[in-house]
Amino acid sequence: MPPxxxxxxxEFIKDITVVDDGIRPVRHAHDWxxxxxxxxxxxLGAYGRACQRAGEFYFVDAMAGPGLYRIEETGEWxxxxxxxxxxxxxxxxxxxxxxxDERNVLALRRRIDQFGPRxxxxxxxxxxxxxxxxxxxxxxxxxxxxxxxxxxxxLHWETVRGVAAHRQGAxxxxxxxxxxxxxxxxxLPVEADIELHNEMALNILFPPQSRWxxxxxxxxxxxxxxxxxxxxxxxxxxxxxxxxxxxxVLPREIRRPNGSLVYHLIFASDHPAGERIMRxxxxxxxxxxxxxRLFL
Length: 296
Ligand SMILES: C[S@@+](CC[C@H](N)C(=O)[O-])C[C@H]1O[C@@H](n2cnc3c(N)ncnc32)[C@H](O)[C@@H]1O
Fold this sequence. Notes:
Blueprint: H1 9-15, E1 17-18, E2 27-29, H2 33-51, E3 58-61, E4 68-71, E5 77-79, H3 81-87, E6 94-99, H4 102-111, E7 119-123, H5 126-137, E8 144-148, H6 157-164, E9 174-179, H7 181-186, H8 196-205, H9 212-220, H10 226-243, E10 248-255, E11 261-269, H11 272-284, H12 290-293
Parallel strand pairs: 2-4, 3-6, 3-8, 6-7, 8-9
Antiparallel strand pairs: 1-5, 4-5, 9-11, 10-11
Helix pairs in contact: 1-2, 2-11, 5-6, 9-10
The protein binds S-adenosylmethionine.
S-adenosylmethionine binds next to strand 6 and helix 5.
């Protein structure tokens, strides 16, 4: 993939646009997923260039999916996160991917077969198996980038803490986490009590620093608006990452073309270059912006 992250967003989408490979399953997604994939593609190239002088660097895809997307609104076929990382240049020494679903694991293995021993795809539950697998495949003294991309509230805070503690010595592993803002918000009704299973899930999802219940109570009493509550939930998650030792934590909204919020991507790094590059990528990578889609 060409190096310059200042290229127009649409060019990054072109880099990851493929044809249907006939392998099943594929992941069906909406067009705002183009923003997530564009951000990932753009950042990984820059990350590789920043790490190159230090030697080998590693990619971990905790909830990897099947490796190919079908975008409903545009009919595009786009690479999933593990193939994006494997095609990124300069190359990662090793990409470790995990998914709980056997069909995704088998499809992803077929899709990335060409990359040989540079890729490892494991079937497992990221909340119980990922930290151990990283101990086996990702050296603790090398830079690593970890994508934690759940569908909803299934990523446990303890998992985030565990992967954050993986790298020892110099700097921490960089994290890009999907925080399912809308999904979380739906679990926190204003007119009714929180269902018990949701309460348990939220306690496992949020860091202790989040004070999510306080935010919910302020929302229920009308003290804060729905939009302010969403901001507070994300801010609580950010506080947890800061408490885990990250110097820089950046949230980025992902919105539907009609402007409504879907989720946040939260980036955590303690390298000043990582922060600078991701700030730039978050600010400029909008392939789903209606203006930019004119150039499709
Ligand atoms: C949003 S998709 C990932 C998409 C992928 N990162 C991409 O961009 O191509 C989330 C994936 O997480 C998987 N998953 C859900 N819970 C999991 C868990 N506890 N451990 C590992 N994978 C899980 C699902 O099977 C699904 O494939």
